[in-house]
Amino acid sequence: xxxxxxxxxxxxxxxxxxxxxxxxxxxxxxxxxxxxxxxxxxxxxxxxxxxxxxxxxxxxxxxxxxxxxxxxxxxxxxxxxxxxxxxxxxxxxxxxxxxxxxxxxxxxxxxxxxxxxxxxxxxxxxxxxxxxxxxxxxxxxxxxx
Length: 145
What we know:
Helices cover 19% and strands 28% of the residues. By secondary structure, the chain is α+β, with helices and mostly antiparallel strands. The chain has one domain: ph1033 like domains (ph1033 like fold), CATH 3.10.590.
């Protein structure tokens, strides 16, 4: 099993959650083809809306790949994005900032946003569990950001 981060604006994440799917890297199939059924994906949203929404810098969804291969969706005559089906968990949007020091994939804590520029990338089980715990903790235990 692998664990992934997918960098996607919040508005696109919300569409994916409603439709039970994910896209990656503007609809390209390469990274989606590397995912396997049962892999976990955490969605990081640098902005509220693509491309010029307000800065957000938060983990916005978490889900598990629920199919065996990437497929093309009909996005209109000029756009057939690749997708994977995902079963999403109930979770709360969670700021990345309180987690930066503990996340292994962020090697340079002063330039913590660099890794997210890759769009989709693998993370360790440690990082997955850390983010998942922060996103799924009971509401009464969360602190307003």
